[in-house]
Each structure stands twice: as structure tokens, then as C-alpha cells.
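Thread title: Can someone regenerate the structure for this chain?

I was given the following input by a collaborator and told the matching C-alpha cells would be attached. They weren't. Posting the sequence so someone can regenerate them.
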Amino acid sequence: MFKPAKLAVLVLSVSALASADAGKPPSTEDLMATSLGSVAWKDAPAPVPKGVQVSPVAVDPASKGSVAYAKFPAGFDFPAHSHGLHEYTVVLSGKATFTLDGKAHEVGPGSYIVIPAKTVHSLKCHEESECVVLTRRPGPTDYQWVQK
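Best answer:
Regenerated them for you:
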């Protein structure tokens, strides 16, 4: 049984998935079973802030939507932003404050977050552990950063 040390979630771009070490990631339509304990982490591509690591799982061949793991260091503050499409995230490990449309939500392992399109959101991973998440998007990922 896999016992994650410390983890949290993030959204991954199709470009991140397309640059997977083994070439293209599998299709979301392919038969697969994956385990967090066996993923290969790499630095997230721009425009994702430095410090975030990702591991692509699959890409939908028709919509270019992605499924991916994301890992945030303890204390990491992922800035406020929105996307043109919905985002669906499950927290796998770690504890964080997920702010959705100005309302803070304390989340931990097993938490499920639905972020409607164009909803401003941010993530603050708590100081005591890193966070790991699994995120699914129905189409290509875009970022609209909120200026402070």
C-alpha cells in the first residue's frame, strides 16, 4: 500500500503533458492503471511558477484535455488565476488552503474541488507538508493571472 510522505494538487498544461519523458502521454481512452508511487516528477513548464513539479498521466486525443499529478513544496503559495474551462482536482496528500472566488476552503487528502470556468482560485500549501493533487481538465489549459 502506498503511503505518500507529503503531497498536493495543481493544474497541468497540455504542453507539459506533450513533453513527457517517454514522448506523448497515453490517451485518456487507453486502458491504464497508474500509481502515484511510480510517477516521474519534473519541473512544471512556464507559465507555472518555479517550485511546482508535475507528472502527466494522459491527454484526451479529441479535446486535448489533460489528467496530471502536481506537487507543491511545503509553504508554497500558488498565485490567483483562472482558466477558460472547468478544472477538477483531488487532493492526494498534504493540507492546503484552496481559495475559490474569494472564499477559503481548508483541504486535505480525499478533498475534491470543482473549479468552474473563469473562477479565480489560488492554493496555499501549509508549512508542515508538501501537497500533491490529481487534476483533470476537459480541454487545453490556459492561465489568466490576477494582478495584485
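Residues 42 and 75 are 19 Å apart (CA to CA).
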